[in-house]
Structures are given as C-alpha cells and as structure tokens.
Design brief:
Cytochrome Bc1 Complex, Chain D, domain 2, 17 helices, binds heme C, 2 domains, metal-binding, about 350 residues, mainly alpha
Length: about 350
C-alpha cells in the first residue's frame, strides 16, 4: 500500500485521542522507583545538554568572581547540599529515590562551561526537581555560585566545613557565617551590618523576606524566620559598634566632587545630600566602610531598575539612573574608603 497524505492525516487525527486514552486508562507508569528505560534516560540527558549548550551560546557570561567563595558556599550548604551533597556530607537517602537523582556535582562540573553552569543555576532544569534561582534578576549571584561550583571538586571536607561553619559571636548563627560574628562583613561581596540604623536593617530584611529586594542568597537566609525575630535581630545589630573604614586612601578621582555636588547635567544628585552626616532619614544607609565590590553591585542594580528596598528605594534608583560604569566604580571605591560614622537610632 502506498502511504498517501490522507493516511498521514488520519494518523495525526487518531494519535492525540489514543494518547489521551492511554493516559486515562492509567497504564503509563509514573513511579520513580523503577527508573527510566535506558533509551528515555539517554534522550532526556541529550535534550538537557543540548538545550543548556544552545542557551549558553546565546548568553555568554563574564569570568566568575574569585572573592565570593564564602557567601556562595553558605548558600550552597543550605540551598543545594540537601539535594546534591557536599564534601563530607553525602546525599540523604530520600533524595537518592528521586528520578532523576540529583547528581554528586564533584564529578560533573568539569563537563560544563561557565556560561552553561550559569544557565543551569539561574534557570533550573524542567521536570527534574532542579529549581531555578529565586531572584531571576541576579545574574551576579548566579555567577558567584558558578565560582563556588568551580572550586567544589578541590575542596576537602575540612575546607568545606571551614567555609560553611558559622563563627560564634553576637550575630545569630544563621547570619554570622556570611556577615561575620560581629556583623563586620565577610569579604568584598557581603555588606557590613554593624553601623547601620535599626530602621534601615529592619526595612531591608522585610524587603528580602517579601521579595521587594531581590536576592536569592538573602531570600533563603530569611526564609522561615518570623518577622518579629528579624525585627529583633535588626534592633540588636544596630547596637553593634561601627568599624574602621579602609586603611588606604582612595585614588584621586572625580568621585568626591560627584558625592558633594552631583552631575546635574546627567541628572545625578549630590550623594552626600542624603548620605552625608548627620543623615536626617534613618532609611538612608551608611556607605562609609562598605566593600567597594558590594557598593558597585548595588549601584548597578539601582541604575538598572533591579534594586528594591525600603520605602525610599525609588529615590535612590532615580539618583543612580544617570551614572556611568566608571562613575559607579570610582564612587564605590571612594565611599568604601570613607571613614564610617557612628550609627543613628
Ligand atoms: C530539590 C533538589 C535540588 C536542589 C535543591 C538543587 N538541585 Fe541541582 N539538580 C537536581 C537534579 C534532580 C538535577 C539533575 C537534572 C538532570 O539530570 O537533568 C540537578 C542538576 C544540577 C546541575 C547539572 C549537573 C549535571 O551535570 O547534570 C547543576 C550544576 C546543579 N544541579 C546545581 C545546583 C545548585 C548550584 C543548586 C543550589 C543553588 C542546586 N543544584 C539545587 C536537583 C536539585
Ligand atoms: C549565605 C550568606 C548570607 C547569610 C547566611 C546571610 N546573609 Fe545577609 N547578605 C548576604 C549577601 C550576599 C547580601 C547582599 C545581598 C544583595 O545583593 O542585596 C546580604 C545583605 C544583607 C542585608 C542588607 C544590608 C545592606 O547594606 O543593604 C542585611 C540587613 C542582611 N544581609 C542581614 C542578614 C541577617 C540578619 C542574616 C541572618 C538571618 C543574614 N543576613 C544572613 C549574605 C548572607
Ligand atoms: C534623595 C536621597 C539619596 C540620594 C541623593 C542618594 N541616595 Fe543612595 N540611597 C538612598 C536611600 C533611601 C537608600 C536606601 C534604599 C533602600 O534599600 O531602601 C540608598 C542606598 C544606597 C546604596 C545601597 C547601600 C547598601 O548598603 O545596600 C548605595 C550604594 C547608594 N545609595 C549610593 C549612592 C550614591 C553613590 C549616590 C550619589 C550618586 C546616592 N546614593 C545618592 C538615598 C539617596
């Protein structure tokens, strides 16, 4: 018999109801225990690898930062290790019953490029349980995670424990691992908390918890912490003494002039009209002594319309809208060296 267009049309008409009938009869197994057929397994992995490869080609990423290991490890320990395990922490048995099993990443990361890992971390993998990053605007956080994944295969259990164990101090254990025992910061990508006002801390924590300020790392850190506890932590942290600013003077740039008078021709206001001392509005954070990389990242988020926050975050977004990249870097460097001032209530 010759196959004619007519036959193909019949097949196309019959296939969907037939599939629906099979599904309705309940003969298609959905149990995870028996695993996939080898061919299904191959096909799913082939599809996943191809999809990630193509998406990553269209979305290249800059080099992952080399100064973000601690906050990324802290996030990995809470958000990823429960499925993927970590050095010295095998995957729990209930996770091994998932289909597909979350793989031990130590042997896997080497087979992906940075852009591919970034793609997986930001977008997750459909139908597998691999979740997307909870803050989709934060490509920079995804890149911090890629840097950690690159380091993972070389970490001994002791190295890993050293990265994720919270030091004892006056900050709760759920915070001190990244922000330091006295809130004085944990490297260039993590803000110092000591010296900020209670109002600013409380408003920031509420914004993370409610999603108004996007950060996958902080969203997870405050997840499940009752709002009264967060308010209590804010009250407590606001009493911690402010710390020394940077020791080296910032390089000579136009930054102090922008801070004092702004760049009216670009619509940039004088930063110190709000951030100068004494700050009249407790919702305005202290910038002196914050790490430059952190300040620059926040300024880029404000400028790009991705940084929420407390009730006055929109005025800050307007202030940053006209900033150019070099201006952001020089302002961040200058403010990070400015001496910190005592906190206000
Ligand atoms: C609920 C469990 C779960 C959580 C939580 C989870 N993953 Fe996954 N992940 C998976 C599963 C399942 C796969 C396998 C996907 C597949 O086989 O296509 C996977 C795959 C991956 C892969 C690709 C590995 C490979 O070679 O196939 C990477 C990289 C990865 N996850 C990183 C992370 C990171 C980083 C986090 C934390 C931010 C995370 N995962 C959180 C379940 C999880
Ligand atoms: C896994 C690391 C990690 C943990 C744990 C963590 N933080 Fe953070 N925190 C960060 C990072 C990274 C940022 C910057 C996020 C951003 O880009 O908005 C941040 C930002 C903040 C800010 C905003 C500060 C500012 O200047 O705007 C506050 C407040 C804060 N954290 C408080 C806490 C508290 C309280 C806890 C404990 C409940 C906590 N953090 C736990 C890493 C962490
Ligand atoms: C009109 C008042 C105002 C002006 C002018 C202003 N800011 Fe802000 N800025 C704020 C407020 C309010 C916030 C806090 C937003 C929030 O998270 O609720 C803020 C936050 C910031 C932050 C984030 C700090 C952190 O800990 O996350 C940076 C960085 C910053 N400003 C830098 C600048 C720079 C640089 C300029 C000058 C170009 C400037 N600001 C001008 C009001 C202002």
């Amino acid at each position: 018999m010759r196959i004619r267009a007519r036959h193909l049309l019949y097949a196309l008409l019959v296939a969907p109801p037939a599939a629906l009938l099979l599904a309705w009869l309940g003969v298609i197994g959905v149990g995870a225990a028996s695993g996939h057929w080898a061919v299904t397994d191959w096909f799913l992995h082939f599809t996943m690898r191809s999809s990630v490869r193509t998406a990553a080609l269209l979305d290249p990423v800059p080099a992952p930062p080399d100064d973000a290991l601690r906050p990324a490890a802290g996030h990995y320990d809470r958000g990823c290790a429960p499925c993927h395990g970590a050095p010295g922490k095998p995957r729990p048995p209930q996770v091994l019953g998932m289909l597909p099993k979350p793989p031990d990443l130590v042997g896997r990361v080497g087979s992906w490029s940075d852009a591919e890992l970034h793609r997986i971390v930001m977008h997750g993998v459909r139908f597998t349980g691999m979740p997307a990053w909870p803050a989709q605007a934060r490509d920079d956080e995804g890149l911090m995670m890629v840097a950690f994944l690159r380091a993972l295969p070389d970490l001994s259990p002791e190295d890993y424990a050293g990265l994720v164990t919270a030091p004892e101090g006056t900050l709760p254990a759920g915070c001190s691992g990244c922000h330091g025992p006295e809130g004085r910061g944990g490297g260039p990508r993590v803000p110092r908390l000591a010296g900020q006002s209670e109002t600013y801390l409380r408003q920031s924590l509420a914004a993370y918890a409610q999603g108004g300020r996007e950060s996958g790392i902080m969203a997870q850190a405050v997840n499940g912490v009752p709002s009264e506890t967060l308010a209590e932590i804010a009250r407590h942290v606001a009493r911690l003494p402010a710390t020394d600013g940077g020791a080296d003077p910032a390089p000579a740039t136009p930054a102090p002039a922008i801070a004092r008078v702004g760049r009216p021709e670009h619509g940039v206001p004088a930063c110190l009209s709000c951030h100068g001392e004494p700050r009249k509005n407790p919702s305005v954070p202290r910038l002196g002594g914050q790490p430059a990389a952190y300040l620059a990242a926040q300024l880029r988020l404000f400028r790009d319309g991705e940084r929420g926050g407390g009730p006055y975050a929109n005025v800050m977004a307007r202030a940053a809208a006209g900033l150019e990249d070099e201006e952001i870097d020089m302002l961040a460097a200058w403010f990070s060296q400015a001496p910190p001032e005592p906190a206000k209530p």
